[in-house]
Amino acid sequence: MGEYQHLTVTPVGGCIGAEIGGVDLGDDLADEVVAEIRQAWLAHLVVFFHDQHLTLEQYSAFARKIGTPGRYPFVPGLADHPEIIEVKKLPHETVNFGGIWHTDTAYLERPPMASMLLAREVPAAGGDTEFANMYAAYDALSEGLKEFLRGLRSVNSSAMADVSKTREDRIADATEAGHTSAESYEAVHPVVRTHPETGRLALYVNVAHTARFEGMTEQESQPLLRFLFAHQSRSEFTCRFRWAPGSLALWDNRCAMHNPINDYHGQLRVMHRITFEGDEPR
Fold first, then answer.
1. Is the pTM of this model over 0.85?
2. Is the pLDDT at 187 greater than 80, yes or no?
3. Active site residues
4. What is d(CA 184, CA 170) in angstroms, rounded to the nearest whole number?
């Protein structure tokens, strides 16, 4: 705790996640405060803040201190803040947005560095999000499998059925408004990527987007992919976050997965999301 001079950092799990206190993200944060937030984020992979009732302008301003906000290819942003998208599940809906273990938009050539979510309205109970540490998932593999995986690349697609269905309604709404299309995306990335800031190796496949290994069929790829998908979400690699209005989470898509739990049918959940431009995985 002594390494942070401007905020408090309290781990929430043994493997991933920490809560940050003592800071109001609506303020014009000094560079040294932002540096400590980034330090905690890189160390814990996902950081959580509470009671951050930010205006859209404040939310966007904080985001720009962390990185360069990007655009989500399937859903348009808010009219005055296109870098912010609304992630909403209405009471009559039974499928939530992105409700499966994944890293955001791994099907892009340059997937986002990070994502940030700010809770506006949440269920009375339920709607938690799980996060998993992909450094730890890689480190726990045998030396033989690590070496084998470092020679593989994976094909990632936005057309995978389990995630496509979670955004059908949003795509339809946006297409009718003339904002986007149901175009699909595909990208090939290393199965094990090197984090550009920490230098650590992380497992970089996910059940939502990874279709197969490059040079192999889906049928040939599935046995090993199924093992990796089950392995990387083992409970000892995870933490679970319970949202409240004003809660904010910032996670590193280069070394962490997340899974929004769909256990709140009949209730409204409204979040504002910003993703940050990233680099090509290597």
1. yes
2. yes
3. 102, 104, 258, 273
4. 15
